[in-house]
Amino acid sequence: MGATQALDLVARQLLSPGDRVLVDEPCNGNLVRLIRLCGGEPVGVPRRQDGPDLELLDDILSRHRVRAFFCNSTFHNPTGAGLTPRAAFGMLKRTEAHDFLIIEDDVYGDFHPGGRQTFAELDGLERVVHTILADGTYLRHARAIQRRLATQQQLTQKALRNLGWRFEVAPAGGMFLWAGHPDLPDLSGFIAGLEEKGILLLPGEAFAVTADYRAMTRINAAHFSPTLAGAFRVGEA
Fold this sequence. Notes:
Elements: H1 3-14, E1 20-25, H2 29-37, E2 41-48, E3 51-52, H3 54-63, E4 68-71, H4 85-98, E5 101-104, H5 119-123, E6 128-129, H6 136-161, E7 166-167, E8 176-180, H7 188-196, E9 202-203, E10 217-220, H8 226-229
């Protein structure tokens, strides 16, 4: 069973029409559509480098009763952000105080080159729904992918920085890089130009719950190569 199917099953069992559901902002657009399909109302919680923005979360919780929080803890899609113990503990304290569940999609966790923090590790699965897949063959394969993605991230970030691109988060591994360029307040034209060259990027708007992400895009570092770097030079897309 894939992660998308697992999330679908959980959402269908858990959510009722009108339930408010917290999600990371930005967020995987498929998850937002799934929540709405189940009758839920997604509410974005800004995702920072260390985890959810707890101050803004408190404001949301003071105004709304929520059913659950769907999130990536490791290599968040699309920003690549992680989760610190402080942010994780803060989030779990709020699940107790406000009586909601965390649905943790840790699909990229095993690709982290070092130790990673998850909600499930701290919570003992009392308020966290978490799936685990681990046998010897899988773990060996995951470690090989860890090394490759860590190298790819370093190469991609270096190449794009040299071309003026900026990142809110500089992930140590994983596939995704959430990027923008100071000279491009709206990336739609640039992305369209790359598409004509056979290079496909997801625009930031695909990950919006309510925020404006026209100046952002998700770049797949796993498929980036030096031969592609020139296409990302602003003014040449």
